[in-house]
């Protein structure tokens, strides 16, 4: 039987990356001679990929999108993506329990693949996942289900034996479009309204080893 696959979003789900994204955006603003952001402003911009992040940041300061600003931010953030980013408490234990129960792990994120690889490597997670689908790994990205399905196929899984876990409406919409259950996590950056359509809600990472098997109608060994 094909092993079940747990597909995780990255920012706001596995890792608290807002501090480093915030710092990189403020460095970009400083280079452009513009005011910095509050943490709440930055969190509201996260979830739709780096281009949209920079677009939103520039628009908030009355500027049009600038490809050079995007390139500057991307290079700077990739080089310093893990200075203050950490795994959310309880995530290492949840991943270990799922692995012990025979689950494969995968990441499907709108963060560019290079920055994702740098971050996972810095956090000691390189090689931990059967597949990592970045925002530029496929022709589409979340909420398009093609991004999730491509990541799942790369992990050797299939929709009937997989669950998507994320903190953003993009994760839940991608899961619904791919015809697999989606778990909305309450500890991330997404507003509670983004949970609409989720198959389950997780208040803490400790709930994941129970919720994922339940959604596939199996118990956790």
UniProtKB/TrEMBL annotation:
Keywords: Carbohydrate metabolism, Hydrolase, Magnesium, Metal-binding. The keyword Protein transport does not apply. One of its GO terms (biological process) is DNA repair. GO terms for molecular function: metal ion binding; phosphoglycolate phosphatase activity. Its EC number is 3.1.3.18. Its cofactor is Mg(2+). InterPro entries: HAD-like_hydrolase_sf (IPR050155), HAD-like_sf (IPR036412), HAD-SF_hydro_IA (IPR006439), HAD_sf (IPR023214), PGP-like_dom2 (IPR023198), PGPase_prok (IPR037512). Pathway: Organic acid metabolism; glycolate biosynthesis; glycolate from 2-phosphoglycolate: step 1/1. It catalyses: 2-phosphoglycolate + H2O = glycolate + phosphate. Mg(2+) binds at residues 9, 11, 167. It is an enzyme of class 3 (hydrolase). Specifically catalyzes the dephosphorylation of 2-phosphoglycolate. Is involved in the dissimilation of the intracellular 2-phosphoglycolate formed during the DNA repair of 3'-phosphoglycolate ends, a major class of DNA lesions induced by oxidative stress. Belongs to the HAD-like hydrolase superfamily. CbbY/CbbZ/Gph/YieH family. This is Phosphoglycolate phosphatase. It comes from Belnapia rosea.
């Amino acid at each position: 039987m094909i092993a079940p696959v747990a597909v995780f979003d990255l920012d706001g789900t596995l890792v608290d990356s807002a501090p480093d994204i915030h710092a990189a955006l403020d460095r970009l603003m400083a280079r452009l001679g513009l005011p910095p952001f509050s943490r709440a402003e930055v969190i509201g911009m996260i979830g739709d990929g780096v281009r949209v992040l920079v677009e939103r940041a520039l628009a908030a300061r009355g500027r049009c999108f600038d490809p050079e600003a995007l390139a500057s931010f991307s290079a700077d953030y990739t080089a310093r993506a893990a200075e203050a980013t950490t795994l959310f408490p309880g995530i290492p234990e949840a991943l270990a329990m799922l692995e012990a129960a025979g689950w494969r792990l995968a990441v499907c994120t709108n963060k560019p693949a290079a920055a994702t690889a740098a971050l996972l490597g810095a956090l000691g997670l390189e090689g931990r996942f059967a597949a990592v689908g970045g925002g530029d790994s496929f022709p589409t990205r979340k909420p398009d289900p093609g991004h999730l399905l491509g990541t799942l196929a790369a992990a050797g899984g299939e929709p009937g034996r997989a669950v998507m876990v994320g903190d953003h409406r993009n994760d839940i919409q991608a899961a619904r479009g791919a015809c697999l259950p989606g778990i909305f996590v309450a500890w991330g950056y997404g507003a509670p309204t983004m949970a609409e359509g989720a198959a389950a809600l997780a208040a803490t990472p400790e709930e994941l080893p129970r919720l994922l098997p339940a959604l596939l109608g199996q118990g956790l060994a």
